[in-house]
Structure prediction request, 139 residues.
Amino acid sequence: MSTTAIHILVADDDDQVRMLLKRVLVKAGYEVSEARNGNEAVRLFKQKPAALLITDLIMPDKEGIETIQEFRRNQTPVKIIAMSGGGRLDQNMYLSMAKKIGADRVLSKPFMPQELLKVVQELTGTSPAAPAVPTPPAA
Prediction:
């Protein structure tokens, strides 16, 4: 039996944050695509849909709030984790706004990798031991 990794799209303008999140998620068995902003996330999602979007809220070009709104306005069937470390406003205001417009979960930066994995596992229905979805063998 073969398995197909669950695809996760990570959108953050901070290269180091994206690299760290990708490393944690790939190590846990997920397939990860990266975007530097909301516009890129929308474009990449159209090319290859993901089961989960993890987005920063403060980014250039298209912020996370706008990105979440676009995904929800288009009724895109994707789970969304919004994350923020602050900005011009209190980070809790950003996270609260993200939750109100459709984020399934919110995380305050900085957070521990285990905290991220726990939320990812809850939203994707995976467990630490089985992050991939079985697919039937080709006929």
User: Anything to note?
Assistant: The first strand starts at residue 2 and ends at 5.
